[in-house]
Design brief:
The complex is a heterodimer of chains A (172) and B (172).
Chain A lengths: L2 H27 L7 E2 L1 H8 L3 E8 L2 E7 L5 E6 L4 E3 L9 E8 L5 E8 L2 E8 L4 E4 L7 E7 L5 E8 L2 E8 L2
Antiparallel strand pairs in A: 2-3, 3-4, 4-5, 6-7, 7-8, 8-9, 10-11, 11-12
Chain B lengths: L5 E2 L8 E4 L11 E5 L5 E8 L2 E8 L5 E2 L11 E5 L5 E8 L2 E8 L5 E3 L6 E8 L5 E8 L2 E8 L23
Antiparallel strand pairs in B: 1-2, 3-4, 4-5, 5-6, 7-8, 8-9, 9-10, 11-12, 12-13
The chains are: A alpha+beta (172), B mainly beta (172).
């Protein structure tokens, strides 16, 4: 191999190595400067609900926990109309919601809430106005949740004996 | 790894419980589960090298899907998946700040989601079709939820047979 050809190959290897090292950074900074486009009308409606946290977006529905400090409730916003819809029987004065998930039809909501001295997991069917407790077995303390779009599969983060685990539940 | 369904009693809800696909390291903490809209994929956080790392798995087989562009940006948090899991939104660490990013698994692109200055993202929820994202922000000590439009940035990740609709906002 000639010296010149050897130098070319060495340069190519060096460039490939540099690209491999930098590629995650290059990919990440490729679009810097392009800010996300907010949805001002909807965001103004959300700000009227007070402080909000734990959003769950599913199709035309946004579920979140919102309200003034000490009076936080589960809210379900119909994004096509920009308005909250009633959740009759879900929010209770003796419970504090911690996280929420909603299915694509906006019919099923799953909520983790603190009630008296326990943390419970409940399924709310909106048109039936029915809320049922979902048992956690073996016993544990639920925290974050995620619901599939059809509302049939639920993933729950559960603390058991100091270890965080993920339970998968098929809902009827 | 076959998924075994366990019928949990004959409670009023007819709840069926599934074991989550095991992590590669056996019994370990697993947090912040996120299902894809179709329920096929599960993202969760596990500890790798002392740092919180997102693990993306096929729920049925347990197969771990590679996310090479996220490898050097731990700790990860707040994963959220689109309908088929093509898009994974999450928070990564970039220097002293948490950065919201979106990984397109089809193209390998890692897209930074740039927020207005002074707002720290805390949680994310990506719409199943990938056309909007809800972000819980910490702004001047207050938690609030804002919606952003992704329709100009991403191809939609649609469920089979679902009609395509606009990603912006239409308010009465």
């Amino acid at each position: 191999m000639s010296i010149a050809r050897g130098m070319v190959l060495q340069r190519r290897r060096g460039a490939a190595l540099l690209l491999a090292v930098l590629s995650p950074t290059l990919l990440l900074t490729g679009c810097l400067g392009d800010q996300l486009r907010p949805l001002p009308g909807l965001n103004q409606r959300l700000s009227q609900l007070g402080n909000g946290h734990d959003p769950a977006l599913s199709g035309r529905w946004l579920a979140l926990i919102a309200g003034q400090q000490g009076r936080q409730q589960v809210q379900l916003i119909d994004l096509e109309r920009g308005l909250p819809v009633p959740l009759i029987g879900l929010n209770r004065p003796d419970s504090q919601p911690l996280s929420v998930a909603v299915d694509l039809s906006g019919e099923r909501l799953v909520v983790v809430r603190q009630r008296e001295d326990r943390t419970e997991l409940v399924l709310h069917r909106r048109t039936l106005m029915a809320t049922e407790r979902l048992p956690i077995e073996p016993a544990g303390v639920p925290r974050q949740i995620s619901l599939s779009a059809d509302g049939r599969l639920l993933a729950v983060e559960v603390s058991r004996g100091g270890i965080w685990q993920v339970d998968l539940l098929e809902l009827p | 790894m076959a998924l075994v369904l366990l019928l949990v009693g004959c409670g009023p809800l007819g709840l069926r419980r599934q074991p989550a696909p095991p992590g590669a390291l056996g019994a370990e903490n697993r947090e912040q589960p996120a299902l894809s809209g179709d329920g096929r994929l599960l993202a969760s956080l596990v500890e790798r090298g002392g740092r919180s790392t997102v693990l993306l798995q096929d729920r049925r087989s347990g197969q771990v899907l590679p996310l090479p562009h996220l490898r050097d940006h731990q700790p990860h948090s707040a994963p959220s998946l689109s309908w088929t899991g093509r898009y994974l939104a999450l928070l990564i660490q970039q220097g002293p700040h948490r950065q919201a990013v979106l990984q397109d698994r089809a193209s390998g692109r890692l897209l930074p989601l740039m927020l207005p200055a002074g707002r720290e993202p805390q949680r994310l929820s990506l719409a199943a079709d990938g056309r909007r994202i809800a972000i819980e922000l910490l702004d001047d000590g207050q938690r609030r939820v804002e919606l952003f439009d992704l329709s100009g940035l991403l191809e939609p990740d649609l469920a089979p047979g679902l009609r395509q609709s606009g990603g912006g906002e239409v308010l009465p």
